[in-house]
Amino acid sequence: MICFLLVLATIWMNSWVISPFTLPASRLIQADTFPHDAADTGWQLVWHDEFDYTGSPDSTKWNYEQGYLRNHEKQYYTSGRMENARVENGILIIEARNDSAMIDGAIRPITSASLITRGKASWTYGRIEVRAKLPRGRGTWPAIWMLGDDIDKVGWPTCGEIDIMEHVGFDPGKIHGSIHTGAYNWPQNTQKTAIIDVPDCMDAFHVYAIEWTPEKIDFYVDTIRYLTFVNEHKTFAEWPFDKPCYLILNIAIGGDWGGQHGIDPHIFPAQMAIDYVRVYQKKSDE
């Protein structure tokens, strides 16, 4: 399938538009390809989950968040519940459900899962890529993102946040990549963010990735770079990204952003399907 991508990027108070273009079929990312020659660029695979097993997500690689956590969202994140996170047919399924489950002595009207590598793996610099197909429907808010390991010590947004992919169901087909730091964050409306149109993101798999070095963070969908966040070499408030960050995969329902236009009750079950997660680093990053 040929993919049409319209890039609309907004960096703080500046914006620009790149005209619509057709992504050549030769540049589409298939399940087992990588958009660079790893030998030529020096990238080495250091961590991955291919989901080539069946059952619960690999407990040596993933932990669960649990509870009502952020942004006034409606879902209760469950731990170890197969209805919300499971691996089948080579795919990780994260599923939001309106099943009114009895969990920890209370009815949870909406359940979902948030998988994290915290406590298992974190990285400073590298290429982090996730091949995923996104849920559809007003009220869904899937995300692939990273937080600084030191969040408990310094808090958010000082710890730094890298949003590799966010998508809100009321605005289908628009993929958001963002950076939040002490200086640049959404409460101050100063976050660094960009949007790329991927009209078939709910019907087809795409690779969502960052390439993170001491000098910058580049954001990609497939082989298209649509945002670059540059290290200004000022203070920790602008660039808190010279320290480890962990990865998060989740589907939120509603909340401050995802719920701005309400929740369609017919969206359930809402699934994010993930083919693989891969982390590459160069020898100098290890």
UniProtKB/TrEMBL annotation:
Name of this chain's protein: Beta-glucanase (GH16 family)
CDD domains xref list: GH16_laminarinase_like
Name of a matching Pfam family: Glyco_hydro_16
UniProt record similarity statement: Belongs to the glycosyl hydrolase 16 family.
GO molecular function: hydrolase activity, hydrolyzing O-glycosyl compounds
Stored InterPro entries: Beta-glucanase-like (IPR000757), ConA-like_dom_sf (IPR013320), Glycosyl_Hydrlase_16 (IPR050546)
Domain GH16 residue range list: 49-285
GO terms of biological process kind: carbohydrate metabolic process
Secretion signal, residue range per the UniProt entry: none
